[in-house]
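User: Before I run my own analysis I want an independent prediction to cross-check against. Here's the chain; please return only the structure tokens and, at the end, one sentence I can use as a sanity check.
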Amino acid sequence: MDATTAINLATAGFLLSPRGQAGLQALQKQDLAETQTLLLLNELRRTFSASEAGALLALARLRRKAATKFPFADQLFLTAEALEQATAWPVAEHHSAWLDQHVPAGAILDLGCGIGGDTLALAQRRRVIAFELDPVRLQFAQANAAALGLADQIEFHQADWVLALENKQLPAVVAAYADPSRRVAGKRVFSLHQMQPPLASLLRLQQQITALGVKVMPGLNDAEVPIDCGVEFISHAGVCKEAILWFGSPAVYKRWASVHTGGAWQLMAASGAPPPLGTLQAGQFLHEPDPALIRAGSFAELCQRLDAFLFNAQIAYLVSSQLKLDPLVQSFLIHEIHPFSLKMLNRRLQALGIGEVELKKRGFPVEPEELRKRLKLTPGNKPAVIIFTQQENGDHIMLICARVGKP
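Assistant: Structure tokens:
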């Protein structure tokens, strides 16, 4: 069994047993590299069956992988798919803090709790009633709650919450948080109406529980967003991980970005006001916003913060005459601006002694990496950033830049 193999109830029961936990403890400090697989399995098979050994190794590797999401990953019970879908711990804590701040005292429903990422964060602040249909994920969520000393804070139900809603069997709570599946039949879906359960079920839930958060895909179609909710785009580790549809009191803004940077969260609302426009010139500073800010459309607010402007209303690059380093953007000093020409670019790279290039683009029809092998660099010499983009009139241009501040 490897990390992609589905775990059945018998396997889950073994992993949760004292024997299974002893086996996991023995693997905790081992070298779990793929090259060590045969050696590790042979060692495990002295004590465990072949299937048990495979399950132990798979979970031990999942725990190592989960360390990028959870600071306590070595205590968690996981499946590969559930880990992929689980909310990273800083983001889960952000969800729970937002709900705790904006809804009155009382219990919160966690609908589709998976292996318990958001459940555990919520339970640090409130009593939680968690629903999960998959029996293995539910057992693992219960074990994870126990491992963190939160079992008394959470009431678990193995049930279809949509059916409970239709039968008027959902508990009375002050708020709910739902995490619909964005994979159907093993394939990722991109519509709010194709999630499981779909948006229609969530809107029926909101009629009963007015304070509601729904985790959805960050690339959601804005035309599908209900008019009476707020949308939060959440970025962690430089990636826009998800969006949350907030209904009721947690919908503090109509549209906003929350960015985790430097160990803290920064929020920026989007007013929808048009950002200022200006002319692009060499010697200016170009700023690339965090992707959550781009999805939220917080351009006017970010321009005001950086004393900047857009040179193309359709391109998410800000430009300023003075440098203001800000954790919400990556910044570059523009040395040269040219119409796009590979021949011209190679001449300038050689003239400037550029030996290493970072390639970026917005509004450019070719993937920059396709051009890399055709670039003429000077080995061992200085670095540069080449940005391929377009002017307001549609002309494709290339900017030779230097990165300033931290990447």
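Sanity check: The CA atoms of residues 1 and 54 lie 5 Å apart.
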